[in-house]
Amino acid sequence: MDTDGARAATAPDEQEPSPEEALRRLLQQLEELRAYSTHFVSAKVDGLRLSAQQLVVWAVLGIVGLIALAGLVVTAIVLCLDGAASGLGLLFGGRLWLGQLVVGGGLLLLLTLSILIGVRTWQHRSRQQKVQQYDERQLQQRTAFGRSVADRAAEDAPLQHDG
Fold this sequence. Notes:
Number of helices: 3
Radius of gyration: 41 Å
Shape: flat
Helix content: over 70%
Mean pLDDT: 90
Distance between the termini: 112 Å
């Protein structure tokens, strides 16, 4: 008699198992299924956990790399500005403070001008986009209704000013 649960049916020369034996086999197979399922779920959870750990490691390495790169850029800029300030200080008769003042003030002036130009450019582009948006709406209105809100306002304008 086969008791490993591998066969579902009995052979023709074998007799049918008793209900107690069938129940025992069923319980054994259910226990085996539970063990395999637990193993499968554990493997999937461990795989997800490992993926999350690797993601965190790569994120931390990326952040550290960005900080190192930013430090490198800042160091290079400081060295360039210090060299320019020293050079100007020598040109001003050895007055290092004057070279530092000129380079620092020039840098602040350049930064201020850049910000002002950037803000004005952004405002100008934003206004142009809105004007284009309203022009397109008026074109759609002319297509749909034969006139736009601007045409209607121009028709009503003399009536408003005559009163």
